[in-house]
Amino acid sequence: xxxxxxxxxxxxxxxxxxxxxxxxxxxxxxxxxxxxxxxxxxxxxxxxxxxxxxxxxxxxxxxxxxxxxxxxxxxxxxxxxxxxxxxxxxxxxxxxxxxxxxxxxxxxxxxxxxxxxxxxxxxxxxxxxxxxxxxxxxxxxxxxxxxxxxxxxxxxxxxxxxxxxxxxxxxxxxxxxxxxxxxxxxxxxxxxxxxxxxxxxxxxxxxxxxxxxxxxxxxxxxxxxxxxxxxxxxxxxxxxxxxxxxxxxxxxxxxxxxxxxxxxxxxxxxxxxxxxxxxxxxxxxxx
Length: 287
Prior knowledge:
Blueprint: E1 9-14, H1 20-34, E2 37-45, H2 46-53, E3 58-60, E4 67-69, H3 72-96, E5 101-108, H4 110-118, E6 123-127, H5 141-149, E7 153-157, E8 167-171, H6 175-191, E9 193-199, H7 203-217, E10 223-229, E11 246-250, H8 258-267, E12 272-275
Parallel strand pairs: 1-2, 1-6, 2-5, 6-7, 8-9, 8-11, 9-10, 11-12
Antiparallel strand pairs: 3-4, 7-12
Helix pairs in contact: 2-3, 4-5
């Protein structure tokens, strides 16, 4: 069985959105549990800097609705202040968990910078919600891009992961699912509960897969329960009977449709962890 030792370096995409605190605390706690190093990354959005360079740019004050001219120097100062504050919060939280950490600032397009930096990490952690204010919360474009294009595993956070609740694993028998299984088992050490949804055409196929899983799990300390996951089943129906603390799914690109991944992001009541097998893993042998 694969262990989780291949997750050695976690990259965290940080900003000043409403979900940033949840991203930070979930990532640091996960890093401490997996004994992985962690890097915080704040991207100075080049679009904001270019916007501030336009002669007609103005800032609308959120509380007073007042309007004042917006200048490039002001925008750079604001971004610098955000980076300074995030570095402090990130460092404080990491030190509390005795996690080895560092913090970087990049400038460019947010999604591009995160995807480029993720090549040096084993897991990318980002927020799920859009940073735009509004009544209706929606999945942000950065989260969607990361899930669709990142070469590494991705954890999309909102709200903060509750590791005292059962871990939910979506298992389809793929190679990626074989890598996701031990990660889910590791996380389930905290709640001692693991719910596995077996993707199968019928009960007979599900029973065969369950027999394989029973041999692979082999952990009496974890209460493991199984559910049938039908191919045409809406993801939202998977957690009607229980509230998971985190959803883990193997994503090797050979089985998980982009549309299903989008549905997961829109309907899951907790963070979703997309596990992608390491590109180079000669010393690992999946189930």
